[in-house]
């Protein structure tokens, strides 16, 4: 399918490019370009030069001086008036081809002022001539400062858009410059130059009769470039121009625009041919490129945007005196859009026909034929495709439901490693926002630091089957990765399935701890008792045997109580915290007496009550005081202080021993943590864990630290209970 589209795309692009270049070189779009030029001219007209002044033979002048033509003595008087004011130049846009008795006076006035006169060319000429040149009368031509042609360049549609700066009737004749050509400026006879007109009546204009009567101040005429010509409607010297809004512009005003272009270098230039071709092809090529990247609706908007951009570019270029004909570019867009739509539709139809035939031949997906007889071929194919999609959607729904029903997290990723499908278990386990995430990075982030390298190694080579790892939040998983392969045997993605074995992992660790307890901590005191009983002699060290037996009983009781607390609910009763602490201290008095350790109980709690399970909390306090006695030096003091603090009861137990090893401080309340403090007694590693479990069960907190003046201090806080 992709190869077919590439082929169609190439030949549509090539065909449209050839047609666009042919339209540009052959001028096929010239009429449309001229109309667009006119519209752009109205949007971006030229600015009128303030030095140009038109002396108009207008309706008021005809009313005051009579019907045209006037006696030439009036022209002589007008020129005398102008000469007194001192204009920069004067051009008479009047055909003075017939002799008159007033010619000597007019010639004298012309010589004084330096007036330019026009020559008219008739093409074709009269009597079968190729052209006919009509010059001013000889008397006036000899006294004129310059003679130039005043022919108006008219396009095929009758509109004036350009001017010829010189006219060469035949190859053998000498070129004649335009009446408005500036002195000393070379004339180009190769082609007419496009004009950028100023809006109608933009040039300063005064009436002929006003100048003749001396009604115009000389300051208004001094230094101006004066054009004398006809503007009255009935005199016939008017032509359609782009900015006239359907009307006509007098020839003298057209010549003023030519002079304006000469003075401001305002001629409209054309780009070099290669650049014209590139700009004409660019919109069609951009649209063809867009067909590969954007949707059909966006392609329609792109086509409209390119058309508007082409027109705006032409208008902006005209404002800078450059003309980019938009017709070929618009033609390219108009060709490309339907051509590509046709070929794409044909290619899509062929592809759907072949794919539907393949699907229909598969037993797993029989297609239901459309029964509609009033639709075209593509519509019938679309209906068959809709049926196939519906069945595939059902199949996807089945797969999705099966995936969603899995009890453990499943992550489906594409070939780029991005997650494209998950189930509810994955969302519950790892949170929202999984779609689009990088699956390898996600699994690495889930694993704890020590497990990240093994997990990454397994993901790189999942042939080993599965891997067990522990997550950073304490959960444990078994990870299995499998490849997803398409019907063509090519890989399509991967599925990662994580089985939560947290309960199994905890049970496994618990089993190891129990084995350690049975094999080491409970076995060691029993072995010591047997060793003492096997000692030769009649004297048996009963005290040591009793201590080892008590260790075994304490360990067994703590282990059993921990197990019971995990299985039964919390059933508290009001208990006076100070009384419970005193009873615990009294129960340890015989042991303390053996080493001369004094247990001081300081009650500042004002008989505060706590909601407690008396037996378990009593044993926890006994464990703390027992540890303090064990790690205190002989004849030392253990201080037990009970106080009421901010709605809580705080129980502090402090000894005078060497304190807690800083290395074991972070693990002090973990199960089986122990320390040899240099005494004869070694902790069994279960007592403080039991204490922490009891305190947590009672909604309290426990902390330990080394006092600044020596010894270890434990602080146990419990919520205050009001027995009323």
UniProtKB/TrEMBL annotation:
Residues 517-722 form the Histidine kinase domain. The keyword Transferase applies. SMART domains: CHASE2, HATPase_c. It comes from the Bacteria. GO terms for biological process: osmosensory signaling via phosphorelay pathway. Its EC number is 2.7.13.3. The keyword Ribonucleoprotein does not apply. Keywords: Kinase, Membrane, Transferase, Transmembrane, Transmembrane helix. One of its GO terms (molecular function) is protein histidine kinase activity. It is an enzyme of class 2 (transferase). Pfam families: CHASE2 (PF05226), HATPase_c (PF02518). This is histidine kinase. It comes from Sphingomonas ursincola.
